Amino acid sequence: MAKAFQSNTVVLRRFCCLKWMVVMVVCAAGSMVLWPWSPELKIQRMNVKRVRVHPLPPVGADVWITLSVAVKNRGMYWLDLAEVDVGVKYRGKKMGHVESEGWHVRSWASKDVDGDLQFSGLPSTEVAHLLEDMAKGEVYFHTVIEVAGQIGFLTINIPFTFKTILACEVLVNTKSHAIILQHCIYKD
């Protein structure tokens, strides 16, 4: 009798532990699905369209760059992007930035945000480096992407705003207009 009671107790303890483990796994999975994730950012395309050199003083250059940033929503909430700002530097010199606003990204979807950057007044010392890098076919740029917005579910705006900042070093092939290398770090 005592042996049967002990085996029933062991079975009940195991069942209780199994029940709690199932509840914890379901709660963890539910929180993963319901958690409002920040968007995932990636530079899809970056292209130096044109460089025009000014030989007369002040010597400098105008640079035109097109770029595309993929904003991927990793959650079940939709995103309203109030601002997408991409800043571009070449050899530590700020070339400028592109701002865009009013984008909507559905849940578990992605959206490409395109922009054109025109920068006038690249210093003459940097013009030589840029032309040399373009002749080699590879140009390094430093970019900072800032995305800010609000989330919502179905038709309800949720009072939760987010801001995501991604700093990248991008190596662009100027002949095939492809991104060769992209090293990015998310910042707080």
From TrEMBL:
Residues annotated as transmembrane: 20-37
GO biological process: defense response to other organism
A GO cellular component entry from the record: membrane
Alphabetically ordered keywords of this record: Membrane, Transmembrane, Transmembrane helix
Location within or outside the cell: Membrane
Protein name, as recorded: Late embryogenesis abundant protein LEA-2 subgroup domain-containing protein
Xref: SUPFAM superfamilies: LEA14-like
Keyword Glycoprotein on entry: no
